[in-house]
Specification:
alpha+beta, N-terminal domain of MutM-like DNA repair proteins, 2 domains, four-stranded antiparallel beta sheet, DNA-binding, 7 helices, DNA repair
DNA sequence: CTCATGACCTGTGCGC
DNA sequence: TGCGCACAGGTCATGA
């Protein structure tokens, strides 16, 4: 589930659930999600114990939870990560990997991750911008996001436009769903060379990506009342608002032609064959 | 430097 | 019923 809007929903949920609360115990139930904490699981638990959470932050799909006395808990949800805030009396959800217990005896925080591509680590001095996140570009919700600079860099990429949109060092937060949605709205084929986009087209596809993520966040916000976000994608937003993603064989909402699914970058791309035709082959000089 | 590819994991649903 | 395979919303290391 987690692209920018979903991660932002989680960030807001964490703000409500853990800000101002002090950790008294950390249980590492599986080592893999703390693999990037190089000092090991026991050190991870020891370092966090006794710390109090401040306001959670986000860049792109990365989350970090600063502590009031410095450092931060760095988190990435990967493909299947969730944070859950549950009363301590309730059993762990399946695939619970890390459990945080708090001094106030209130709800526990549980990091749940089926595939374990995500993970947690302690980022020393990471309150402002963790070193692990420094290579990630600003996302379009960032007040300092620079559209002109991003457009200029996009138009220098010698790759297909979808690959460029997914490049978290160019613009962060966009994943497979919102890339496909932005391309459909912009009537662009995923393989259109980024450096053949007009300035207008480049601006347009970034604006559409931003717009679709903003709409998705709005949907997530209205239905959000706990930390649970459905990994299976059965939330209302996905049923109602996606134009192409996951709609293979269904009619294009603009022209009625059946949506095609094609492999691209070891994943699926969905497009309308009429609205988003394959680009003409370009023979580059030298 | 840039770009493309496969590895990293578990679980589910489908066709046979 | 059981098995094998395709597939799942991400990132990173490693090659060319």
């Amino acid at each position: 589930m987690p692209e920018l809007p979903e991660v932002e929903v989680v960030r807001r949920g964490l703000s409500t659930a853990v800000r101002g609360r002090t950790i008294t115990r950390v249980d590492v139930l599986h080592d893999r999600p703390v693999r990037r904490h190089l000092a090991g699981p026991a050190d991870f638990a020891a370092q966090l114990t006794g710390r109090r959470f401040a306001e959670p932050r986000r860049r792109g799909k990365y989350l970090w939870l600063p502590f009031e006395d410095g450092d931060a808990l760095l988190a990435h949800l990967g493909m299947s990560g969730q944070f859950r805030s549950d009363e301590a009396t309730l059993p762990d959800p399946p695939n619970t990997r890390i459990r945080f217990v708090f001094a106030d005896g209130g709800p526990e925080l549980r990091f749940v991750d089926q595939r374990m591509f995500g993970g947690l680590s302690l980022s020393p001095d990471g309150a402002e911008l963790p070193a692990e996140v420094a290579h990630i570009a600003r996302d379009p919700f960032d007040p300092e996001f620079d559209l002109d600079q991003t457009v200029a860099r996009l138009r220098r990429k010698r790759s297909g436009v979808k690959r460029a949109l997914l490049d978290q060092e160019l613009i962060s937060g966009i994943g497979n769903i919102y890339a496909d949605e932005a391309l459909w709205r912009s009537r662009l084929h995923y393989a259109k060379p980024a450096d053949r986009l007009t300035r207008k087209a480049a601006v347009g596809v970034i604006m559409e990506a931003t717009a679709v993520m903003r709409e998705a966040l709005g949907e997530g916000g209205t239905s959000f009342d706990s930390l649970y976000v459905n990994v299976n994608g059965s939330s209302g937003y996905f049923e109602r608002a996606l134009a192409v993603y996951g709609r293979e064989g269904l009619p294009c909402l603009r022209c009625g032609r059946p949506i095609k699914r094609e492999p691209f970058m070891n994943r699926s791309s969905f497009r309308c064959p009429r609205c988003q035709p394959a680009p003409r082959m370009i023979i580059r000089a030298s």
